[in-house]
Design a protein that fits this description.
single chain; mainly alpha; Serine Threonine Protein Phosphatase 5, Tetratricopeptide repeat; 10 helices
Length: about 260
């Protein structure tokens, strides 16, 4: 009797586990992203608090402005903390609904995956694409790449047709490049050229695509891309940089003859 009950329980758990596996995976991905954002925000907050104190001691006239920046970062940090807490509750609810028992509680059917499913993207930080973009630029320039990546990604996810979308795509690629994540840099610069071919960031995107391909040791593709920069934008600063980069690349290996 116990064996039969155990088998029935395992069958139910297997079905529930398969149904909820995708939900748990997405929620864990969101948890990881929120944790990265929180770490980046915390680092940024500490940096700006130290700078605010230094300017106050020196009697700088712009210390009040920096204090406002500190408060803005603190507000964002509090927002991420709240979202992390809510997500932790959701994860626990999903875990409890699928764990330990051979069947759902009497009179209450197991929740369908759609009831708890959510996107792997975190909640939108700001509703204004320009404000979100400027926030991402500030974080990027401060070296908070994880946070800037999340913010640039939100611009593209939610405001792909906005005036700042092409710039967001370019700087997202630059963030990946700065972190030496060259595969994602390649994908992002390719996206820029595909979705925003008329952007004023296209020459720079094509150039950095060539750089990223070179970093991945894809020499033939890198050379072809850099030559494309020169052909399409011959008088641009990017063309000059492309010529310089081509001189630095090792010569292509000649194809061996078959015998």
């Amino acid at each position: 009797m116990r064996l039969g009950t155990l088998l029935l329980g395992l069958v139910w758990l297997g079905a529930a586990g398969c149904a909820q596996q995708t939900t748990l995976k997405r929620m864990r991905l969101e948890n990881q992203e929120l944790s990265r954002q929180m770490a980046a925000l915390d680092s940024l907050l500490r940096t700006r608090e130290v700078e605010s104190e230094r300017r106050w001691i020196q009697g700088s006239t712009d210390s009040d402005d920096l204090k406002r920046q500190v408060q803005q970062v603190q507000d964002r940090l509090d927002n991420v903390a709240r979202r992390l807490a809510d997500l932790a509750k959701d994860l626990e609810a999903v875990r409890l609904s699928s764990g330990g028992k051979g069947r759902p509680p009497a009179g209450r059917p197991a929740a369908a995956p759609a009831d708890t499913d959510r996107s792997s993207s975190p909640a939108l930080l700001l509703a204004d694409p320009l404000e979100l973009y400027n926030l991402a630029r500030e974080d990027m320039e401060a070296g908070n790449y994880a946070l800037a990546i999340a913010e640039f990604t939100q611009v593209l996810d939610h405001f792909s047709q906005s005036e700042v979308a092409d710039n967001a795509c370019y700087w997202l690629g630059e963030c990946y490049y700065a972190q030496k994540d060259f595969p994602r840099a390649v994908q992002t610069f390719q996206r820029l050229l595909k979705e925003y071919p008329q952007s004023d960031k296209a020459p720079g995107g094509l150039l950095k695509l060539g750089y990223a391909l070179a970093e991945q040791k894809e020499q033939a593709k890198a050379v072809a891309t850099l030559r494309e920069v020169i052909e399409k934008f011959p008088e641009s600063p990017e063309a000059k940089l492309a010529r310089e980069k081509l001189k630095m690349l090792p010569p292509a290996k000649a194809a061996g003859k078959r015998r």
